[in-house]
Amino acid sequence: MLKAVAIQALRAGLACVVGAACVLAPAPAAARGPLPHEGSPTITLAELPPQGRTTYARIRAGGPFPYEKDGTVFGNRERLLPAHPRGYWREYTVKTPGVRSRGARRIVCGGAPRTPDACYYTSDHYASFREIVQ
């Protein structure tokens, strides 16, 4: 029984020693996938959907933004973007045709509002990100 628990713990990314407490160990890079700053996929401005290009242009112009939540702090709770102090990342809605709500598409930018250091696009409500490159 103890051996089976140890095997399950190792598979879950836990390092255990029989008779000792289990300690959470980071998952191998292959298991977690690359982080944005480790060679993640990119997307060019031209590859963004037309609504994404419009949102990006509004970000660079400082607005106006059609959604109340546009420009609000993005908490990066998923930890898929590079770590920065709270308030660094801001989120903006990318309109989805035919959807009445804000939908799942966003651009998240870090740094100064009109001249961000980096912007990322997500089409799946923060499950994955692609860095926007020129």
Automatic annotation (TrEMBL):
The cross-references to InterPro entries, in alphabetical order and at most eight, read: N1-like, Ribonuclease/ribotoxin
Where in the sequence is the signal peptide annotated? 1-31
Keyword annotations of the record: Hydrolase, Nuclease, Signal
Among Pfam families, the record links this protein to:
Ribonuclease
What GO molecular functions are on record for this protein? Answer: hydrolase activity; RNA binding; RNA endonuclease activity
What name does this protein carry? Ribonuclease T1
**Source species taxonomy:** Bacteria, Pseudomonadati, Pseudomonadota, Betaproteobacteria, Burkholderiales
